[in-house]
Amino acid sequence: MNTLDQVLETALQLSYEEQEMLIKILKNRHHESRRLEIATNAKQTLADFHAGKFQHQSANNVIAALRQSLNEPDA
Q1: How does DSSP classify residue 52?
Q2: 22 near 14, Cβ under 8 Å?
């Protein structure tokens, strides 16, 4: 397994154009990975919703809970 320093050193040996291409490839793969993660979470949330794992709440209560969570220190 390569260390980050080794990967960076290798990347710096590439031409400018190859470095630009590498950056674009890494960004695209990172974005795609994040999209897949979000889609997986969404599917699980929908399955939980359809299974009745969530309480019915008004929009006002949900917004109030979200605002309160923003003011709480990280656990």
Answers
A1: T
A2: yes
